[in-house]
Amino acid sequence: MTACAERGVSAPPEVVFNTATDPDRTSAWLPEQVRGTTTTARPAATADDLRARWGAETGWPVALQVHPGEAGGAMVRLELAGDVPHDELAELAKASLVNLAREVADNLTPG
Question: CB neighbours of 44 closer than 8 A, spacing ≥ 6?
Answer without folding.
Answer: none
